[in-house]
Amino acid sequence: MANVKCNPDLVRERAKCSFDVNELIHLIDGGENATKEKRHFEETIFSVKELQDAVPEEYLSHKDRYENAVRKATILRDVCREYMKKYNYKPNRFRVGHGVFKDVSPFLLHDGMFVATIIGQGTPEQQAEWLPKAENMQIIGTYAQTELGHGSFIRGLETRATYDPKTEEFILNNATLSSFKWWPGGLGSTVNHCIVVAQLFINGKSYGIQPFIVQIRDLNTHKPLPGVKVGEIGPKMGFQTANNGFLGFENFRIPRMNMLMKNAQVLKDGTFVKGMNEKLTYGTMVMVRVGIVGDCSLNTSLAATIAVRYSAVRHQSKIKAKEPEVQILDYVTQQHKLFIAIASSHVFRNVYSWLSKSYLNVMKDLAQGKQDHLPELHATACCLKAVCSRDAGSVVEECRLACGGHGYMTSSNLPLVYGFTIATVTYEGEQTVLLLQTARYLVKAWLAALQGKVLAPSVSYLSDWLKNDNVRWQNTPEGIVKGFQHVAAGKVKAAYDTIQKYIKLGKDYEDAWNLASVQLMKASEAHSRSILCEVSWGEVIRTSASPNLLQVLKQLAQLYLVYWTLETSGDFLVYSNISKDDIAILREKYEELLAAIRPNAVGLVDAFDLRDEILHSTLGSYDGRVYERLMEEALKSPLNQESVNASFHKYLKPLMEKAKL
Ligand SMILES: CCCCCCCCCCC/C=C/C(=O)SCCNC(=O)CCNC(=O)[C@H](O)C(C)(C)COP(=O)(O)OP(=O)(O)OC[C@H]1O[C@@H](n2cnc3c(N)ncnc32)[C@H](O)[C@@H]1OP(=O)(O)O
Ligand SMILES: Cc1cc2nc3c(=O)[nH]c(=O)nc-3n(C[C@H](O)[C@H](O)[C@H](O)COP(=O)(O)OP(=O)(O)OC[C@H]3O[C@@H](n4cnc5c(N)ncnc54)[C@H](O)[C@@H]3O)c2cc1C
């Protein structure tokens, strides 16, 4: 990239950088070697001509766009397979996926959930049967859980799997319209198999929801099998090439062994054998929620790179009347919009790495029959997924707005990035629903704290606060982290007290819960923020890096802490011992941090190391040829391939001539 002829503003910005950009790239990647491998892999992918689109996708019809995405998905799969064989390297397909598809691969659910569910929910025999076929794409699958009528409340799913002991089969049925599966990615026209989550019935008795592996299309003709009704759900706000679909069954029979039986089992005679914990059936969702926190980091870095580079190139208006127009990055309001995006990406990455470790530890425990830490993992993954995805959506939109009119151009890629980022707020558990799951855990933890019990590490601050809620405020990063814990503890207490108040007024627990649920949701958000602050600050101070880089990483981590303290200063005034003067000091600190980060802004986004092919942006490319690229892309419009469009003769001319009469 270094030899590319760049916009002079970007050249100046890069020269100003106080730290070694390569050092940060290696730190993010996990070492110099990892960067080399990543770059070699990406170089290989992006030099495949067939993966490059001659015409921007947006000009294609819905159908052509889908077919083009499938074409590229298959080529990408082949290239990755060869690459893995040759170099024994497991590539990050999601990162290059943004480059290849701009939007989303029709195989996303195959990789993200179908294969993962076979691993997580299948017995060793079932894994031996389906995993090799799924991994080498002999079968292509998705995860079909959500229905027209139910997504959040999965116990309410209506798809039925009724066991027939005579034939040792399950009979799948969708008797109502609301029971039709709706949303699964790739289901529309791509997959031939799915994990179907359905209500199990044996001898007329319900045994809750269970996962089944089901072939829905003929492997040769791709025609839906008899008894299967399947199709695509149509255009959406984003995820245009994900090929989301609908599905219903009519008396469709599958063998008994197609119920994934790692947890619960159905024996030949129809005996139901309960698993260790029925919630383990929800395991794939927990895994993906953890993964989404990592996705939030990537999505935020995409938007930050585009908006920061553009803001360094774009000049508009003046700060001082007698001086030239300034780079818009020099406006402190612009820095306020953008630097939180850079900081958030680092916070999400650090928290993802922390959460992944907890996830793997709990998986190891579960393999040994221990489930003590499962509730804490579930509660933590729920609230972090909810808050990180919503933050990422807001940050991406702020970056888009920070690019003014050009941010509204599809060629900036910001609308597409926003489309797939904002989807994460809803899928894999809608944000409010997940925050309320965590609130259940917090309320239980609060009760345990009141009873003097020892709490799990992520909530132990509740007991600390109960012992001493009068800690003096300190304007240090550690003091701010404590402050967030005080806010969270204060909110959990307030929500709990509200439930008790309603119960005393004669309400039953469920109604009291619903009445207190705005507070419960806010308590859960505050709990997430305290984890995000504590974990990210902790990770940064433990980072081993050169003094120059460490200084910049600390500035970013502090910016995150101060930004969110100021954003929620009302809560701090209510629930911590912060004073108005402390808030004024923090405001000053915030301005100092913006000024300190400013010279490194371009270096920081360069360190996300996102190739132009991944950014897909006229505004964010490494060389900063913004106006040239905007014009080049505009000229690709089919309307610019003819000097006069037929509509002139057909409609405009007759209109003008009618007006003369
Ligand atoms: C790694 C790479 C990843 C890359 C990314 C890949 C990208 C993939 C793209 C994905 C596209 C989208 C896919 C989808 O959206 S798939 C569908 C996802 N659907 C959902 O997430 C549904 C959300 N709803 C639920 O999860 C549940 O219904 C809900 C948890 C909200 C409630 O369940 P339920 O009603 O059964 O439970 P209760 O509320 O009554 O709670 C009972 C107790 O169970 C505990 N619980 C609940 N869930 C879990 C769990 N998963 N693990 C452990 N424990 C759980 C809950 O806390 C309760 O405990 P207590 O009674 O002790 O309070
Ligand atoms: C882009 C995209 C891709 C998807 N891919 C898949 C897929 O591959 N496979 C799949 O199975 N599903 C998929 N889904 C479905 C997704 O998982 C669900 O849409 C999601 O879980 C939310 O459920 P819902 O649509 O039923 O929302 P609802 O639950 O109907 O939410 C509507 C509103 O009701 C509120 N609400 C609901 N319950 C409660 C409650 N208990 N307390 C308070 N408020 C509540 C919510 O907060 C929300 O404001 C996808 C969705 C999207 C958008």
UniProtKB/TrEMBL annotation:
Binding residues annotated for FAD, in chain numbering: 146, 185
Keyword Ribosomal protein: no
Chief location of this protein within or outside the cell: other
Domain Acyl-CoA oxidase C-alpha1 as annotated: residue spans: 282-443
GO CC terms of this entry: peroxisome
UniProt KW Ion transport keyword: no
Needed co-factor(s): FAD
Residues the record marks as active site: 428
Keywords: ATP-binding, FAD, Fatty acid metabolism, Flavoprotein, Lipid metabolism, Nucleotide-binding, Oxidoreductase, Peroxisome
Highest taxon of source: Eukaryota
Domain Acyl-coenzyme A oxidase N-terminal as annotated: residue spans: 20-140
SUPFAM superfamilies: Acyl-CoA dehydrogenase C-terminal domain-like, Acyl-CoA dehydrogenase NM domain-like
Domain Acyl-CoA oxidase C-terminal as annotated: residue spans: 477-657
Pathway the protein takes part in: Lipid metabolism; peroxisomal fatty acid beta-oxidation
Biological process annotations from GO: fatty acid beta-oxidation using acyl-CoA oxidase; lipid homeostasis
GO molecular function: acyl-CoA oxidase activity; ATP binding; FAD binding; fatty acid binding
One Pfam family recorded for the sequence: ACOX
Subcellular location: Peroxisome
Family label: Belongs to the acyl-CoA oxidase family.
PANTHER family: ELECTRON TRANSPORT OXIDOREDUCTASE (PTHR10909), PEROXISOMAL ACYL-COENZYME A OXIDASE 1 (PTHR10909:SF250)
Protein's UniProt name: Acyl-coenzyme A oxidase
Lineage: Eukaryota, Metazoa, Ecdysozoa, Arthropoda, Hexapoda
